[in-house]
Amino acid sequence: MALTINEECINCDVCEPQCPNDAIYMGPEIYIIDPEKCTECVGHHDEPQCMVVCPVDCIDPHPEWKETPDQLMAKFRELQSKKA
Question: Where is each 4Fe-4S ferredoxin-type domain found (predicted)?
Answer without folding.
Answer: 1-29, 31-64
